[in-house]
Amino acid sequence: MGTKPLGVAMGPLGLHAYVANSGSGTVSVLDIGDLTVSTALGPYNTPTALGVSPDSSLVYTTDSTANAVRTAQKDVLAVTDTIAVGNTPAAIAVSPGGIRLYVTNENSATLSVINALTSTVLTTVPVGAQPNGVAVNAGGLEVYVANTADNTLSVISTVTNTVVATIGGMSAPLGVAVSRDTLHVYVTNSAANTVSVIDTGTRTITATIPVGTTPWGVVTSSDNLWAYVANHGSDTVSVIDATTSTVTETIAVGHQPAGIAVTPDGVDIYVTNSGTNTVSVIQTLNQMAPTLGPQSGGTKVTITGTGLANATSVHFNNASAPIIANAANRILVVSPPGVGVAQVAVTTPGGTSNPKPFTYAPSGSASSISPAVGPTGGRNTVTIDGSRLATANSVLFGTLLAPPLIVSDQQITAAVPPAAGPGPVPVTVTTAGGLATEALTYTYVDPPALTGLSTSTGSQTGGGVIDLTGLNLGTVTSVVFNGLHALFSVGADNTLAAVVPPSPITGPVDVTVTTAGGTSTLPGGYTYT
């Protein structure tokens, strides 16, 4: 690591972890598979917190002394964009679709809402004093901000970008995490050595859990069963049972732990130790992941525990599973074919373990995608309807991966990944039961370029028909003259006809076309006389 690591973020695909080294101005990239550190991202001034795009291609970092958010492309290992925000940005959250970034500005008492597609600040929301931790729920509808100086939690609606509730009763709150099911928010109280559990429906504190000294970061597991807390003052991590709201284990880590993240499968926990310039990797014990797989078998399943060395067999009910790797506290096996629920047990020379349930899921069906056309730059959100989609774990646009967001068993959404060029690609949905059975197609289109008008002047009363020329106009959805929508018809990919709308003013106005690929404006392109 670099010096004084603070924030840590996990890529949604579970392949890499990213660590913000605030003292050395770098972001370390950790390979989850072999626990190696690759070339660091940079340059930064003082990186403090991180977020990762849903397709894992972009890493967003708050740079606190630069009052900015910096965007880095993971594949080129370099900062490619800088977005000015408020004073001393402290934390960042990425919306489920990757379209919005939410950044707390500690010394401005604000939350910056950023359009990730355009790298611009959409709005700035006033919150409480000295905001720090921030989290957005899995539905993308609410954002939660911990206000350290006034002991409150702000609840922000992402529809209106306004504070809709302020919850008191905290004590110098720092970290915030939302359960995957969106039902509970966990807030670390750094001055009280506790964690507050908040019911998101009633917006009230339902439990206060004693943890270690000066708790900072907090994270929840994807199965909603656990919360993990980094205790900065006692060099420990508290493991909270979310069902009982009690600490079940306290784990020693490095000096001054700050940030904390968990892998998507819930097997490993990553903790930054700011006082020793290290990252602790904690393996959860007596766990199995994934717990779902197709009836055809072939799922790689990780089993953790103690006394697992020299395993002689692993059975899914009565069916034997091939063992790929075996260590004292971890086994990797491949699930055999099956149906229903199988009890998984490990046999070693010391005996047979307690069983863990593994469910064989039937395949799902993806019947439609909307919209089916979009920009080559991606980042827009699509909706996929079908059946048995509640266990969807990936969506492929051609060969490009997009993590899905589960809406219901009949619907998922996904943020479209960027494409190298225009054209149709197959869309493949994978669930716990395997590939969905329907074939879907999504078409990437290049952004439009409006280059000219056949007539550039006309009466204020409008009504004239003119031709608009340019590139990539075939999917046009609107033509606007200074905010006034015009009737139009598409002639070809490089031309369309529009009826000039009446105007309340005279003089030059902008003409804008919008297509599935984006927008293009001809400034002052038409003059009303």
* Average pLDDT over all residues: 92
Biggest sheet details = 6 strands, mixed
> Overall 3D geometry?
globular
First-last Cα distance: 66 Å
In terms of structural class, how would the helical and strand content be classed?
mainly beta
Q: Count all strands and give the number.
A: 56
Low-confidence stretches: none
Please indicate the percent range of residues in DSSP E strands (runs of 2 or more).
over 45%
Compute the CA-based radius of gyration: 26 Å
Domain IPT/TIG: 284-361, 363-445, 447-529
Protein name: IPT/TIG domain-containing protein
InterPro entries: Haem_d1_sf, Host-pathogen_enzymatic-act, Ig-like_fold, Ig_E-set, IPT_dom, WD40/YVTN_repeat-like_dom_sf, YVTN_b-propeller_repeat
